[in-house]
Every structure is written in structure tokens, then in C-alpha cells.
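3.2 Worked example (two chains)
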Amino acid sequence: MVTASLKDFHRYTNLHPLFPKVEEFLKTYEFGVAGEKIHLEGEKLILIQSIDNARPKEEAFLEAHNRYIDIQICLEGNETMGWRDRSDCKSPKSTFDNEKDIIFYNDQSINYINVQAGYFAIFFPEDCHAPLVGEGQIKKIIFKVEIEK
């Protein structure tokens, strides 16, 4: 897991061959329609635009993905994200949903990271994360970056 200011995203572009494309896209990006998915590179790089109500920690379940890395960028609001190493999660809520590339866990987050407007968090498949913790509305974008095969 990585978290930093969006102005420092360039420092992390070497982590995946598609991260430079994310950086270039962000230079001219303007938020469109909440819920809209934009396929920037077919199924390999997808942008999801979101405006959601935050929730208390008790209602934020840990999730993990197998196919995609998440780059979650807070645009407005103050989001807290729970984190726990996936290998420590022993209580899945259900089986892995291959179509949606997601599994949820009953396990509790062991760390919480404040990701305020202008900051981002990168979650790899080994990172369980519980987004949207806080109060009020959170406007964000999520890049789904396919894992290299």
C-alpha cells in the first residue's frame, strides 16, 4: 500500500507500466458523471468516478482484488481508509466474485489512513482496504490497473 500527495504521484510511476498513463490522464482530467466508468486502455486501465456518502468504521468492510491494483484519489472531502494485510484476513464474508474482481472480509482493519482531498492511496492485491470511512460526501476517482501477467 502506498499513500501520498497527488503532486508526488510521479514518484510512483515506475511501479507499473500503466501508471505513467494514469499520470498523463490526470493532467487534463475533469470530473464527469458519478458512477461512470471510462476505459482508458480496454480492460487494462479503467477509471471509475464516484460521489458517495462516508460511513462509520463499523460499516466499512475490508475488500481485496485479484486482477486489479486500485489507485484511489480523493478529490473532495476527507476520506479515511482501513487497511490490513490480506494474508491476515481469515473471515471472508462470501466467496471471491471473479466477475466483479472482489472479495469482502469480516476481519477488522488494523490501520487507518487519512486520504484527504488531493491525496491518493494505491492498493495491491495483497492489501485489504476499507474505503469511504468518515463523514459527509466523498468525491473520488478510482483507477483499476490490471496486474501484469
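3.2.1 Second chain
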Amino acid sequence: MDLAPFIDHTLLKADAKESDIRRLCDEAREYRFHSVCINGSRIIQARHFLEGSEVRVCTVVGFPLGACDPDSKRYETEVAVDLGADEIDMVINVGMLKDGRDEIVRREIRDVIEAADDRIVKVILETSLLTEEEIKKACEIAVEAEAHFVKTSTGFGGGGATEEHVQLMRKTVGQKAGVKASGGIRDAATADRMIKAGATRLGTSASVTIVQGADAPITGSY
């Protein structure tokens, strides 16, 4: 299987430099990854480095905790769109979900989708912090809000994607949304298992290792 079209080639470290973003984009061009996923302050640079290519620019909103006010997520999305982002990965408010404040979670997802203006929105659940019932509930809320994807993890929340969680998410959303597996995907075998479990997109910083079929250990988050 050609894994490259499934991959959001990711660099979200706080200490990433412009040269790192350039390298990320050069690799995305070479291997034809679906997108680069970068922090909002790097959108303009990524667009410049990817000019003329089909690689999309994905950015994150409410990252990595998701605990900010919903209005700030909407504004962050509007800015990202103005800067040229093609896709938005937003983090839900995990605490509100656990409080049973479903309408707040649903509303903030809808706000981001509206601000994204027809761009793809992926909803990050942070599954390592949730029970199976909470994962199902979060998926149901995301589908009701008409999100395009549900996503396992930020990679910064103490746990990453598991096959079991991907399977549960796929079972819950059916064909109504995509499923993005992220966090801890560092070799081709793991990537393949996630896709077989139901993932239609992968978020990883080990993209080059994955598409080359290598399984040497990769260090770092995401």
C-alpha cells in the first residue's frame, strides 16, 4: 500500500525553526504526503515552501489542551484561514465532555466548522484521557456537528493512537466521518495496522521512515 496519501506530515514542537519547517515541506513535496501539519505561526512559511505543489497545509486550533474559551478557537480558525490553511485540526474541551456539557462541545465544533469556511475540520478527542463511553460520545457529538474527521490524539497528552480506539471510533462514526490516527505511529507496520483498524488519515512526524518501510525507532512527540 502507498501510505503517503494517508499522511499528515507533522511538526508541532515548540522549538521548531524555519529551517525545520522548510525541511518538512521539502519532504512532503518529495514523498507526496497529503499535508504538512504545523502550528499557526508557521502557516505563511509552509505555504511559501509548498508553492506549486499539491501538498495541503493543515494547522491546529486550541492545541494541545483544548481547554480555552470556544470563542478563541473560532478566532484562531478565522486567522488560520486568512493565512492560508487548508485543513484545521481542533482539540475538544475534554473537561467539558467529562462534565457532560455536550452542547458546549458541540457548539465549539460547529463554530470552528463555520469559521473554517468549507475547509476540512478534524476533531481531536485525546482518547488516552477518555473512557470508551466518552470516546463514543465525543464521536457522536462530532458527527452531529458535521465534522469531517475524528482524530485520536494530540501526541502531547500522555498517550497516542491504539488500534482498539481507532476501531471504536470507526464503528461509532461509520461512514459519516473520517478517522485520523495520531500519536506513536513510528513505523510502516503500525501505520498499516491503524489503516486496517479503520483510519483514513495518519498524523506522524515519522512519515519518511514509514514510507521507506523502515522500522527503526523514532524519538519525539506525535
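3.3 Remarks
The chain is about 40% helix and 15% strand.
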